[in-house]
Each structure stands twice: as C-alpha cells, then as structure tokens.
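Troubleshooting log. The previous structure file for this entry was overwritten by mistake, so regenerating from the original sequence record. Sequence copied from the archived sheet and checked twice against the printout by T.R.
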Amino acid sequence: MVPLLVLVSLIVFGLVLLVPGDPAVTIAGEDATDAQIAATRQRMGLDDPLLEQYWRWASAAVQGDLGTSMFSNRSVSGAIAERFPATLSLTAMAIVLALLVSVPAAIAAALHRGGWIDRTATLGTAVGVAMPNFWLGLLLATVFALHLDLLPATGYVPLDDAPLAWLAHLLLPAATLGLAAAAELTRQLRSALIDVFDQDYLRTARAKGLRGGSVVTKHALKNAATPVVTVLGMRISVLLGGTVVVEQIFGIPGLGQLAIEAVLQRDLPMVQGVVVVTAVLVMLANLAVDLSYGYFNPKVRAR
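Regenerated output below.
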C-alpha cells in the first residue's frame, strides 16, 4: 500500500500542475499587477523547484495536513472531515442495499436455474449494469419524490440530528448507487453458487439429509463468496466515484460535491486532498477484501 500511495500522490501532484492557467493569477485576481502576482506566487511557494514543492506537500500530508484552500483559506483536511460523513453514509448504505438485493436474488436464481426466476434475475442484472447512474437517479427522484411524495429529493441530515430523516434522505441516492452494484454482485454470486452446487460435497450433504436452507447458508454461500467479495471490493471504488454525480443530483454535501466545487474554482490543494483521501479509502477497502479471504477460504490462511 505504501508504494502505491506514493505513486498515487506523485500522479495527483503532477496532473494538477498540468491544469491550464496560473494559480497565482487566479488567487490574486485578473486585475492584479505583475508585482502582486509575483508576491502571491512567492508566498505560495510556486517558484520553488517541483521536487521541493512535492516534498513539502507530501510530508505535510503524511501528518494529516493536506494544505489550505486557495479561496476560502480553510484547512483542506478540515473541509474533507466535514464532508466525509455524508459520503461515508451514502456509500455504506449503497453497499447494504446492494447486498440485501443481490444475495437473495442470486440464491433464488441459482436454485431455480433455467426457470423464470433465473431468467428474470438475469434480465434485471443486464438492465442494472447498463443503466447510467445519473438517469436512474433522476428517474427515482421524479417517481418517489415528485409524483408519490414519499421521500425527499434533495438534502442531507446528519445521523446524530435525526436518524429517521438521515435514512429518508439517503434512500434514493443509495438506491441509485446500490442497484448497479447489486446487478453485478447478483451475476457473480449466481455463477459462483451454480458452480458450488455441482460439487460432490454438497451432494453428500443433501444425501445425509441436511435441509436446503442449511446447505445453502452454511456450505454453498460461504464457499461461493470469495469471487463476490473481490467484485465488491472493486465496486467500492466505483461507488466512491459515482458519488460525484449522485451527490450533485440529490444535493448531498459530500466529498463528490466538494470535488466538483474545487475543480470549478481551480482550487488545486482541495482537488489534491480529495483525490488522495479517496485513493486511501479504496486501498483500505482492497486491504479489507484481501484479509477477508482468510475467512472465506481457509487455504489462504495456511499459506
């Protein structure tokens, strides 16, 4: 993880430098004189060599200091910490919804292979994978918020303030993100379960008189979970990327919305901070997936 994080930080720092324009001109203002622009550039350290600029930024980032916003003079770390709970809540609820939909659907499809349940699940996964997040979000908001008036269309309420309002405001955006993940997880889990159902040890378990539910939950599901967990780890990065669009649609003040604001304002330290934090979250999720293999597959622990 450490070499990968160093590589990500180098790429982020380098790409931001390629953004057209001079940050000193943006901060000083278009009407600023050459002397004012030069003073701003010197104050921000933009005249220093690139390696020195990177080392100064990276060494501070390791200590939790991601710099200061060019426009609001706020701490980047503080702004990210303020927006992070909304994005974390949205991503976590999307994962929960994806699992609640995908696991029963995959089990039902695998148990009724070739039947109408299996064909319906296969069609649903195809639609879910192909459907764009922004279109699904607008559709859900139109139906459930505008026409049926069941859920709020925009906004976010912290969990500590009102748990029920927090849940109501997150259902639509979480469904927007979670349904696509549910489609992919259903497809993978169905295929894995079908392979496991054909194994000899499951035939032996059925021959010994074990009930169908016990065979599925205690034996088949655990052994089929390894590829599904891998896909789930990959989907976490997609979910975090999808929050950029979904948070804009539903007006959620999270990291995605913060990233959009920073890009539009050309707030380079804020862009760098959001990207690095997102990369760390993805790497931690992948680490958790790797560690979970030891639970689902005891052979991994023996190596």
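The chain has 14 helices and no strands. Archived copy saved in two places this time.
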